[in-house]
Amino acid sequence: MLAALPEDCQAAGTVQFLELGQSGGSSYDYGLYLPPCYAAAAGTYPIIYLAPGRGSPPQAWLSPGAAPIADDLILTGELPPFIMVSTQSTDSDMFAEAIKDELIPYIETHYPVNPDRRYHAVAGGSLGGIAAYRIGFSLPDHFASVGMFGSGAISGEEPQIRAWMQAMTPRNRPRVFLNTGFADPLMLDRARVMLSLLDEGGISHTHIFTDGDHSYVYWLANFPAFLHWVALDW
Fold it and tell me: Does some domain include residue 2?
């Protein structure tokens, strides 16, 4: 059963920046958003993992405004409460092994995350969007939704993307959301390549390409649309 917002809830959600001890002995920094009145609710929650761009810390998504956006949509009843986890940049971990092997298992055994894949989403901006599709496409039994902001298919990885898609079944194909600005000098063309690959692979997708640049300001302006989209199956 999904947790419901208590009728008298007026409090904002909470954001913490924490450290996870890894099996190799090092620590992994991450951000954790718990929804309004989390302590007073019973049940399980959908979860969204957010990966930042190159060189960005876990604060990159939550500090500029992802948490207040989530609060507003939850407190107004537009969306059910959900958990968000922001990760480290994958600069030195291009295939996000620490996220897949360490962070996700820890979060989903220590917090009341609904086990059904329909309630699991992974998203990111720029390099984080590349990490998001690598995680979501390689773990389709775990993730039902992938979000890519200012991002696209990294050049040269088209054969691997096709291979991931060919290994999917009609039952575990994730949906994909893309948001890229027309003034994005880095990723607009690669986002269009990803759209073509998604069409080729029969992957359901939604895209928002509008006036905007390669920035969290632009991506967060479209974050409410992403959250509404990701919650369609909740």
Answer: no
Residue 216 lies in a domain: yes
pLDDT at position 26 is 76
Averaged over 211-227, what is the pLDDT? Answer: 97
For the chain, what percentages of helix, strand and coil (3-state, to nearest 5) are there?
40, 25, 40
pLDDT, one tens digit per residue, over 55-79 is 899 999 998 799 999 999 999 999 9
The HSE-up count of residue 120 (CA atoms within 13 Å, CB side) is 24
Q: What is the CATH number of the domain that holds 212?
A: 3.40.50.1820
Beta bridge partners of 47: 83, 120
Q: Which domain does 45 fall in, by range?
A: 14-233
Q: Which two three-digit tokens encode residue 118?
A: 């329909």
Q: How confident is the model at residue 117 (pLDDT cuts 50, 70, 90)?
A: very high
